Amino acid sequence: MAYDLLIKNGRVVDGSGGPAFYADVAVQNGKIVGVGKFTESAARTIDADGRVVAPGFIDHHTHYDPQALWDPLCNYTVQNGNTTVVVGQCGQTIAPARPGDQRVNGVNFTWGSIAEYLDALGQRRGVNVGALVGHSGVRRYVMGEAASERAEATAEEIESMKQLVREGMLAGALGFSTTPKDRDDPAGVAAEEERYMLGSVLGELGTGLFQWLEDSFREGIRAYGSCISITAGPIFNLRLGLDVPQDEDLISPHIMFAGMPTWDSVMARPTPERMRAFRDTEIRRALSAEAVEGTVAQAAPGTDRRGSPRGFFNRRWDLVEVFMAHQERNRQFEGKSVEQLAQEQGKGIMEAFLDLSLDEDLETHFLCVDRNVDVDSQRQILGSPYTVIGTTDGGARPDTMDRYEYSTNLLGYWVREKQIMSLEDAVYRLTGKTALMHELHDRGFIAPGKAADLTIFDADTIASKPREPVDYPPAGANAKHVRRGAIGIDYVIVNGEVLLEDGEHTGALPGQVLRGPLYQG
């Protein structure tokens, strides 16, 4: 028998969590047909000697809902070994949609229903895509503009929303997603009971994942099942020239100093006055006292208009990085932390930070890793068998955040360097466990009959590359996208075809829309 693809001599980590073993993997018609030793010929043979052969990683919390329509690879998740992404998280979806809702830049809407959207996703696929039914999507479809204003839906509206969830699941959605109350989207406006009522459709159907963000765990989630996703920490884009009124929510995620009195006062000023304040010696001293010398307990946390905490900057200036300099003369500082910059220039932290910002008229972009920075705590969380590792959030904020590297960071930093878990357990967390969680029973494992989604990598070198800005045309002229690739990944194989080889796209488009168990075609 001649195989389509034969991977020889690899160290197979099969996604089950069991011990690695050396074997060949034979592929025919997009499926794994054998794991063992084979002498038959193949249309293509890959020598994986010295490499790990693992199931393709599953990026299970993304917002590629629009991007997947024009970007078949869902960059840059595939460069980090992912062969499947799941869209529709946090209740935020672009289906179902009425004509008046179709306002996403760069997207040619050809659908109204969830079923039609899933069909549109399947037209040009590099990576596989699965989708959840989003709470905001169905609420907006049923209630129109009132979805963002009225908490209490009528009984008739609830029934209409439940029917949309039901139809989405029958069309092949993998579950239902929502978001905590008091967020500025339709799902966040909704009364708490509405979440349970819509989620009850999954119980009625006997299948599906219920995705709910972290606030639900603090208040006690009812027994629908849950998914906790852990990353190294949120990464935010910080630019001191951002002109946002002080009471706008946008200032909270972008300005990590919110709630610190002097910072609040300065950031509320027009840019010219702000620059004058940043040059003032006494004001600098106050800014430094709050953001450098101070402690979290000393700084008033402040709240946004919903009463949620705003000020949580951890004062880890070694984690505030110069991401994108505005002036060519300052490009030499990109990739360096503010702490490193201060040490090299013989300045204080605040002096180095503000001097660079002022030199560029406050246009310098910094990246800030904001939370989850305690290594011992992360070790405990990641090591828990109840933790589902993931959440690139890919596609949500391509210009300000990047978590594409969670898989390579886990394998390189946490497994190889910190040794918090075995390689086999890490691969299980990235593949088999996530596949089972989404009821993707034909993925996530290396075994005969499973889909040939495979990632071949060097366990001794796998790591994430430094982040870098790249042009991002869909977002407009001069827009930038945060890119973070990987090293140590030789091949990414989707449904039996090599999608990436040494980080480069082969031109193949073998991806599929992955549908849940209720879908009947």
UniProtKB/TrEMBL annotation:
Record GO cellular component, one term: cytosol
Superkingdom of origin organism: Eukaryota
Residues annotated as domain Amidohydrolase: 44-180, 323-498
SUPFAM superfamilies, per database record: Composite domain of metallo-dependent hydrolases (SSF51338), Metallo-dependent hydrolases (SSF51556)
One function term, GO molecular function aspect: hydrolase activity, acting on carbon-nitrogen (but not peptide) bonds, in cyclic amides
Family the entry assigns: Belongs to the metallo-dependent hydrolases superfamily. Hydantoinase/dihydropyrimidinase family.
Name of the molecule in the record: D-aminoacylase
Organism: Geodia barretti
